[in-house]
């Protein structure tokens, strides 16, 4: 099993990343802010534009340590990785399936089944854990709608219809998202998904969570030899990690949405952790982003029992496990791709 190492998040603006021996050095105005051994890291995520030395990028590329650059508000800019280590036979199979829409749909529907199943059980757990704080009847009705949609998806082998069914399920789930916010209701509401820019505090956190999850999913897929940019549900688009977006569909609710809800409901973030821009964008402050990233790293260390493997793993290893299972399916070792089904 892959060992879960650390991700270094560089949250301060105007920090330059440099190499000294086997260490990464963080510099600002020629002053050393920090020094960390690289052998403890599996990836580096830097917020800002200052950059990294060629020596550091070459060192990390040789050792399969990815470096991802984002804007200060969490928008992806670029990712530096080493030479592809993919198995050519595995990738050729991936490309062949991606070119065939019927075969693509049969793979993609398992991603969507996993996503809707997990959304259903998020709603079910709300009725179990907070029966006096949510409208149980409304949640149960949405859960039944998701069950009916899953039945239709199981028989679906058309990509366009699959996307339509996913949209129906998303509507049933999203209309109850705001009802899962149980604390700080005066400051945190969710009405609809907004991106580029996020227009409220919840969307600001969701955008960052999805970006970080996509980063981890991309690294996991590349690590097992797959091409993260060639998907089945999400079709090819220059610069888009389509396969990473495919596989993370089943993890969006239970991994990212639940994380954002926990930050709000446990009062780990507050209205003071956000700033409103003139263009309507709502962004995390530097201190708010620090809180968010620290909690994200802590969540990745928490344990969960994988329903298919029957083993206890950390949340942070989940993208790597699902990438491995997908690779086994594409190689013909498994009859079906087993999505992560949480309950």
Describe the structure.
The chain is an alpha+beta fold and 343 residues long. The protein has helices spanning 54-62, 88-99, 101-129, 136-154, 159-174, 201-223, 242-265, 286-301, 318-331, and strands at 6-10, 16-20, 23-28, 31-37, 41-47, 66-70, 76-80, 274-276, 282-284, 303-305, 312-314. It is globular and about 60 Å long. The chain contains nine helices and eleven strands. 47% of the residues lie in helices and 15% in strands. The longest helix has 29 residues, at 101-129. A hairpin with a 2-residue loop joins strand 3 and strand 4.
Which characteristics define this entry?
alpha+beta, three-stranded antiparallel β-sheet, 9 helices, 47% helix, 343 residues, 11 strands, four-stranded mixed β-sheet
């Amino acid at each position: 099993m892959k060992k879960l190492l650390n991700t270094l998040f560089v949250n301060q603006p105007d920090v330059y990343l440099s190499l000294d021996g086997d260490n990464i050095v963080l510099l600002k105005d020629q002053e050393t802010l920090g020094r960390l051994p690289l052998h403890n890291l599996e990836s580096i995520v830097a917020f800002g534009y200052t950059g990294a030395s060629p020596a550091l990028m070459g060192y990390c590329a040789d050792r399969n340590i990815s470096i991802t650059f984002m804007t200060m508000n969490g928008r992806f800019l670029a990712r530096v990785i080493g030479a592809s280590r993919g198995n050519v036979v595995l990738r050729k199979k991936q490309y062949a399936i991606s070119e065939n829409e019927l075969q693509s749909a049969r793979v993609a529907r398992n991603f969507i089944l996993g996503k809707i199943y997990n959304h259903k059980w998020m709603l079910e757990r709300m009725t179990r854990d907070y029966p006096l704080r949510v409208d149980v009847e409304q949640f149960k009705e949405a859960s039944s709608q998701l069950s009916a949609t899953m039945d239709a998806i199981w028989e679906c082998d058309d990509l366009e219809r699959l996307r339509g069914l996913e949209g129906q399920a998303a509507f049933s789930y999203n209309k109850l998202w705001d009802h899962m916010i149980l604390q700080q209701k005066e400051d945190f509401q969710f009405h609809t998904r907004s991106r580029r820019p996020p227009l409220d505090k919840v969307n600001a956190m969701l955008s960052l969570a999805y970006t970080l999850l996509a980063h981890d999913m991309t690294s996991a897929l590349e690590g097992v030899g797959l091409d993260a940019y060639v998907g089945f549900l999400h079709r090819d688009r220059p610069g888009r990690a389509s396969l990473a977006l495919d596989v993370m569909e089943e993890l969006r609710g239970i991994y990212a949405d639940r994380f954002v809800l926990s930050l709000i409901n446990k009062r780990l973030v507050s209205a003071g952790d956000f700033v409103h821009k003139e263009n309507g964008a709502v962004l995390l402050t530097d201190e708010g982003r620090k809180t968010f990233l620290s909690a994200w790293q802590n969540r990745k260390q928490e344990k969960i029992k994988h329903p298919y493997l029957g083993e206890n793993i950390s949340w942070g290893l989940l993208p790597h496990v699902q990438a491995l299972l997908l690779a086994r399916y594409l190689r013909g070792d498994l009859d079906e791709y087993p999505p992560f089904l949480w309950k």
